[in-house]
Amino acid sequence: MERYCTYQDRCHQEVLRKLREMRMIPEAIDKIMGHLIAHGFLNEERFARSFVRGKFRIKKWGRVRITRELKNRDISPYIIRMAFEELDDREYSDTLRDLARKRLSQLEGIHPRLQKKKLYDYLLYRGWESSRIYDQLDELFPSY
Q: Which of 18, 27, 80, 102 is at a distance of 20 to 30 A from 123, taking alpha carbons?
């Protein structure tokens, strides 16, 4: 289990699931989990920070989707807030702008209203806040 946690940051839920798949008894699971936490192999804050950085920089996910995914992994709201300190507001805005422009270039030849809707749906699916999306759409479609 140490190797499993060293290979990639894991949340408690993933490790518990893996131990249950291995058909460990509850007492063994408790002992192993305690060992992993005590020796720094398992740290939810480190996992959350790594998750936020990775999903934002690699997959270009927004805060909404990242938050939803972390909540699905039973990460506490406090740790989620701490993990978002990893994101720079300027970089966050620049990424949204670049992502919107790239997607818009793929939607050429379509009526502007349909472009706007498709772009909104795309950015919303990727977890960007609707208020930021509307601001971006106003910038890209000033006349609509």
A: 80
